Amino acid sequence: MKYRIGLAVALLAAALGDVASADCLTAEDGIATDRPTGPNSSPAVPQGSVQFENGVGAVHAQGETIYDLPETRARFGVFACTEFLVDLPDYTHLRSFSGATDLSPAVKHQFQDLPDGLTLWTTVGVALPTGDKRLSGRGAAPYIQLPATYDLGDGFTLNGMYSVTFHPSDPGNEPLNQTSVYLDRAVTESSDVFVEYVNAYQPGMATQNSIDFGGSWRYTALRQIDVKLGFGVNRAAPDWYFTVGYSLRFDQLF
Length: 254
Known about the structure:
7% of the residues lie in helices and 53% in strands. It is mainly beta. It has a twelve-stranded antiparallel β-barrel with strand order 1-3-4-7-8-9-10-11-12-13-14-15.
């Protein structure tokens, strides 16, 4: 486990030396978001820009509906192709109790000089133990994400991400592995739709498999609304889940 964390950090550190490329977003480009899909396969926020991705969601599992908001991710373009991001605490309401999730800062970098059509990122972050332990567990939870996308042509892109979350403060809590793959289709220059498959596996727990679909609409260059609806395809997965979001970007702030 320590080897995998160290390898990911080393790759990220090496990649930070390459901070300029025409493939990375600039202030002239429109907004591109990580939500509403699982893979965080959107270009790094332009240097000097700040982006807020927000949403509200609901999950129905084991006979109970769980509500979650504001699902806010703040993204800061610190270099070309590199951003600092932070997932702010969500308020989560269950029938038995309510509480806040952890604060989770991270660094995301977009790799360069890859074959045409292929884009790769790496994200290294940690969920800090700031939230309700009944929701987030004990201690810090570092994570690594490896998103990727490939342009298939004719408006289609194939996107995916493998992520692993560790629980070093809770030896009995095994790493959570998640794989997401989705096919995206641009409908117009400002809208797209997708279908996604998600697999979540944690040793000692039942594997969860789900399918979702949705889309997004950039009604201005720097404003977007999105929606996603999904359902589980095996007994361990949630019965259904839903999210709707609103994102916006501010350019040349620093």
